[in-house]
């Protein structure tokens, strides 16, 4: 589920991203982050981001040569994942016309220069609604962002806050408690933006 939140940004240091061609990297040195994201529209986007070893290094992998990412969804539907770049970050995605609970998606990384990785799986949980008002405004200087949703459960989840003017914030939510908080101190401004600049952010919960 996605929600848009307005943020007031402050000037802090930015983090540089780099790109690495996949055909020069062994499979064992790759780290894959795979998400299936449904927003209530009836569709699910499966997104894969490849990193060189530790994701915190921000060394993003770009597919080269015959390296390929495929994703297999319900009812035998398969799609090739397409590349997208945003602010130096590279990811690959494909969209399926379903958002049913327990839908499973299998991501396959195939190559001939080294071993393939054919079986990375993600499954959609039961749907839930975010209760935090869409379009709420927050100050980076003073405001924590509290996100609430309407369904409790046992599944752990991940979130990330994405925006053009602040660095991405990532975290885990353990025990599905029904709410979590992004502290004001976690929101770091991109260096190209001024103290008075505002922007819109999305917070996917997966």
Describe the fold and architecture.
This protein has 206 residues and is mainly β. The protein is 0% helix and 46% strand. It has a five-stranded mixed β-sheet, with no helix packed on it. The protein is globular and about 50 Å long. The model is unreliable at 1-14 (pLDDT under 50).
| Fraction of helical residues | under 10%
Helix tally equals 0
Strand content: over 45%
Overall body shape: globular
- Spatially, the strands of the biggest sheet line up as 12-1-17-14-15
The biggest beta sheet reads: 5 strands, mixed
Rg over alpha carbons: 18 Å
Keyword list:
single chain; 206 residues; mainly beta; five-stranded mixed sheet; 17 strands; 46% strand
Strand-helix topology:
Blueprint: E1 4-8, E2 18-21, E3 30-38, E4 44-52, E5 59-62, E6 68-72, E7 78-80, E8 82-86, E9 89-96, E10 104-110, E11 117-123, E12 137-139, E13 145-148, E14 157-163, E15 169-173, E16 179-182, E17 198-202
Parallel strand pairs: 1-12, 2-5
Antiparallel strand pairs: 1-17, 3-4, 4-9, 6-7, 6-10, 8-9, 10-11, 13-16, 14-15, 14-17
Give a short overview:
This protein is mainly β and 206 residues long. It is 0% helix and 46% strand.
């Amino acid at each position: 589920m996605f929600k848009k939140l307005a943020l007031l940004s402050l000037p802090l240091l930015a983090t540089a991203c780099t790109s690495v061609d996949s055909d020069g990297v062994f499979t064992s040195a790759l780290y894959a982050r795979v998400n299936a994201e449904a927003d209530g529209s009836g569709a699910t986007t499966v997104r894969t981001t490849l990193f060189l070893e530790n994701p915190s290094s921000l060394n993003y992998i770009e597919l080269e040569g015959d390296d390929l990412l495929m994703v297999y969804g319900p009812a035998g539907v398969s799609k090739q994942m397409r590349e997208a770049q945003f602010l130096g970050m590279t990811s690959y995605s494909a969209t399926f016309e379903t958002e049913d609970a327990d839908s499973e998606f299998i991501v396959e990384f195939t190559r001939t220069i080294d071993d393939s990785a054919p079986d990375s799986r993600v499954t959609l949980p039961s749907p839930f609604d975010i209760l935090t008002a869409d379009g709420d405004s927050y100050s980076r200087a003073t405001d924590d962002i509290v996100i609430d949703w309407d369904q409790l459960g046992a599944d752990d989840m991940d979130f990330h806050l994405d925006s053009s003017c602040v660095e991405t914030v990532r975290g885990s939510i353990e025990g599905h408690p029904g709410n979590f908080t992004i502290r004001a101190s976690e929101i770091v401004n991109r260096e190209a933006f001024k103290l008075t600049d505002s922007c819109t952010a999305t917070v996917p919960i997966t």
